[in-house]
Each structure stands twice: as structure tokens, then as C-alpha cells.
Design a protein that fits this description.
The chain has a single domain, classed as 3-Layer(aba) Sandwich (Glutaredoxin), CATH 3.40.30. 45% of the residues lie in helices and 20% in strands. A five-stranded mixed β-sheet has the order 1-3-2-4-5, with helices on both faces. The longest helix is centred in the middle third of the chain and has 15 residues.
Amino acid sequence: MYDPVITQHMRSELTRLGISELTTPAEVDAFLARPGSSLLFINSVCGCAAGSARPGLGLFLAGPDRPANLGTVFAGMDLEATSRVRTRYDQLPPSSPSVLLLQDGVAARYIHRSEIEGRDANAFAGLLRQACAELPG
């Protein structure tokens, strides 16, 4: 587990964007039960989270086409909440950072860390726009 003082700004980057923190398994379950389109961001302390994923997510969310529900868990910090996500979607390889796009709680697209690494924030925002445009419904 990381020092909460050190990671607070990493959390704040997301909450300032209107993304709900999910810190318990019950909060994860409630989020995953929401109808409609959802984006679940698995946060991380790594460099690609800081340099590409969080800034790119901010750029994406500044646009008009965004999922109805926005949530985040912090790998390495919200251990039980992150574990609940990974247990619910155990067919997906664990990755942080990563993005899980859902339609009515069903995994529709998973963006693994390998798709984030090497992209700048603008390219990651573009990947999110494309992925969301392909969501069913």
C-alpha cells in the first residue's frame, strides 16, 4: 500500500473531473449495477498513469460524448475494491492503469495498460473516444 499523502493528488486529478471514487466492494457493486454506459478507471501510481492515462481521461471527459457513469478504484490503495472489480471481470487480465467500459454492467471494452503505454494524453483521449463510440446501445 502506498502512502495516502503521496497519492492524494492522484485521486484528486480524477475526482475533480467528476469521477466517483469507489473504495469499498459495496461501492463497486453499486456502481457496476448502474444501467447505461459506464467507465471504470483503475488508477495507478505508475508513469503511464501520470503522463498519459489521467491527463488523457481529462481531455476525453471534456468532450461531449462520455459515459453516463464514471468511477475509479486505485490499485495498490483500494485493495478490496480493486479486488472486487478483478473478481467480477476475472476473464480480463489485471492491469493498472486500465479502463473498463461497460454497458449495463457488462464489459464491452477493456483498455489494458499495454494500450496506454507509449501514447501521449491526446492519443489516449482519442482511444477513449473511439472505444466509447463503439459501445453498444
